[in-house]
Design goal:
Elements (H helix, E strand, L loop, with lengths): L2 H11 L4 E5 L3 E2 L39 H4 L2 H9 L2 E4 L6 E6 L2 H10 L4 E4 L4 E6 L5 E5 L2 E4 L5 E2 L9 E2 L2 H9 L27 H16 L5 H16 L7 H13 L4 H15 L2
Parallel strand pairs: 6-10
Antiparallel strand pairs: 1-2, 1-3, 3-9, 4-6, 4-8, 5-6, 7-8
């Protein structure tokens, strides 16, 4: 049994849903059966969704406290190759304020209530009791990891875990665009008069969506930027002709969320792409 597997079992016994991280401290990629979320994915931690894959697929949604899953052959192989252990804060009823540098740590000490603190490579994790939507870059050097996100396990830290303060919730609220907000799921196609592109074949559209999903799924760094650029590329080709349906858009959102992106970030990236293109 590897050290990572022992750590994972210990954390799971204390109620933290765990998953292994691959090299680069990112989740393992989906298996062939789950590639491009063809299986339907795992929408959240409470309902398993259509996917019944025994492997470590779908990023944060794979996190579990079940020791039988954690020690299953497919997971055990992943633990042998793992670079670190991660957990799903929201699944444990927690929120992690990820402070990425000294300036962010200084801001937190002057602004937020004291709570359990875990040192990281460049800053600190401040852990609160309570959940909220995850949100990246709520201010310079500060990310919020809770629901639909994962955090690297770096030790138990010091101090008592305080209740999630309104000051942290307010940080995420400030990042919400006031106007031109795209929904997470679109119920109608974008602008246009039909469900089929007038200047491209349906096969071309399907190939384009598949390539976009693959581009997001294979991102190993700069995931935020990759998601935005991919959304921008899809919209620049098909955003005006009405061929994009909610099914196409949801495939893109599902791929991004499988890489750890929050629904809010997906929505913001989509909205920003629409704005850039004047749609």
């Amino acid at each position: 049994m590897t050290e990572h597997l022992r750590t994972a079992l210990s954390l799971a016994a204390h109620g933290l849903p765990v998953l292994p991280l691959h090299k680069g401290k990112v989740p393992f990629g989906n298996c062939p059966a789950c590639a491009y979320n063809a299986c339907g994915g795992r929408p959240n931690m409470k309902t398993p969704g259509p996917c019944r894959c025994p492997g470590v697929c779908h990023a944060w949604a794979a996190a579990t406290t079940d020791p039988h899953v954690i020690t299953a052959p497919t997971w055990e192989r992943a633990w042998r190759d793992a670079a670190a252990v991660a957990y799903h804060p929201g699944g444990a009823g927690l929120t992690v304020v990820d402070l990425d540098d000294e300036a962010a740590v200084g801001w937190a000490r002057a602004t937020l209530p004291a709570t359990r603190t875990v040192p990281t490579t460049r800053g600190e994790h401040w852990i609160y009791r309570g959940t909220m939507p995850s949100s990246n870059a709520v201010r310079p050097g500060v990310d919020i990891k809770s629901l639909m996100a994962y955090a690297r396990w770096l030790g138990s830290g010091t101090g008592a875990t305080a209740p999630l303060p309104d000051a942290v919730r307010a940080l995420a609220a400030k990042t919400q665009p006031a106007t031109r907000r795209a929904p997470q799921r679109l119920s109608v196609p974008l602008r246009g008069h039909g469900s089929e592109c007038p200047h491209r074949t349906p096969t071309y559209l399907e190939r384009g969506i598949a390539m976009a999903v693959q581009r997001i799924s294979e991102a190993r760094s700069a995931v935020h930027a990759t998601v935005y650029r991919t959304f921008l590329a899809v919209l620049s080709t098909h955003g005006r002709c009405g061929c994009l349906t909610d099914t196409h858009v949801n495939r893109l959102f599902t791929a991004a969320q499988a890489k750890g992106e929050s629904p809010r970030h997906c929505t913001d990236a989509w909205t920003n792409a629409l704005t850039t293109l004047g749609l």
